Amino acid sequence: MEDKKINWYLVDIIAKYRTAPLQTISYLIAYSTEIIGIISALLFVGYYIKNDGTQDGFHRYIPYISYTEGLLYTILEILFFISFLLLCITYLKSNKGMKKILMIIGMSIFITGVLFIAGLEILSSLSIYISIYAFAGIYFWTMFFSALLPIILVIMDFNLRMYGKKWLFSFIRTLFVIPALLAMALDGGHIDGNTIIPTLLFLILPITVYVYYGLKFMCPYCKKGYALKKTGSSIVGERDISIRKQEKTVQYNNFNQEISHSVTDRYVPGTETTYRLDYVCRYCGSMCRKRKIQKTMNE
């Protein structure tokens, strides 16, 4: 599905529609959404538009309530969600086992959370207000990690990695970075706390994971990340060692309830095995080797 030599221009993306239709549509939606977001940010820069349509000066920019009282901002979020959903569908089609289960769990929790908020908005329009203040923190972190899990899975998938990376950076630039920079520029260099927190969360964590695995599988010759493919492994050495093992002793009363416990350390025989891992670069074809040490107990 994923061409390792793909050039990220519209002509090249459209040309891949036959072999990767969902990825192509996903990219085009994300790309178009980013363009709309940039134009919208420039058009609405500095304006705080209220429900009655009046403008509250040119000195203040709040991303979540600018963009025509947040309506356009919500539309951009929906478009990015549809774009990423197409990548998730492709992921589910091409993966099995635990990877597929994790994707289903993450997307199910996230979609349920979105529908929950949508339900609250509908009730609010009917003048029925339900406070979730006590659960706001739990809800935020649940939604954050449920959204982060599918993003990490897509970025770690070799066939979807480039599409996922392009989507992620477009998403961050459009909904967080550009509004945050405009907020700083129009607010005397100060940034609103509601903007900086999600910006850092969505920016730092996924990029950290992406960079870590990129460096881990970087080709030492052409210096391209995510390039090494494992071709084989062999044992090059073994030696006997002692491994520390913790044992817990528990005392119970007549009602089978724990009354005390103690933890002791003892050393047991073990084996340290050194493996040689062979890799080949997907791009330049160079071969390299790495070593891996594994310690196991003999009992």
List the main descriptive attributes of the protein structure presented here:
disordered N terminus; alpha+beta; 299 residues; 8 helices; flat; single chain
Explain what you see:
- With 299 residues, the chain is an alpha+beta fold.
- It is 53% helix and 20% strand.
- A three-stranded antiparallel beta sheet has the order 1-2-3, with no helix packed on it.
- A hairpin with a 5-residue loop joins β2 and β3.
- The longest helix is centred in the middle third of the chain and has 29 residues, at 97-125.
- The model is unreliable at 1-5 and 46-68 (pLDDT under 50).
Low-confidence stretches: 1-5, 46-68
What's the overall geometry?
flat
Question: Radius of gyration, rounded?
Answer: 26 Å
Largest sheet: 3 strands, antiparallel
State the helical fraction. Answer: 40-55%
- What's the oligomerization state? single chain
- Which strand order does the major sheet show? 1-2-3
Strand elements, count: 3
Name the beta content range. Answer: 15-25%
Please write the string of helix (H) and strand (E) elements: HHHHHHHHEEE
The chain-level mean pLDDT equals: 76
Question: Which class do the helix and strand fractions yield?
Answer: alpha+beta
For the termini, the CA-CA separation is 46 Å
Counted by DSSP, the helix tally is 8
Quick structural overview:
It is built from eight helices and three strands. With 299 residues, it is α+β, with helices and mostly antiparallel strands.
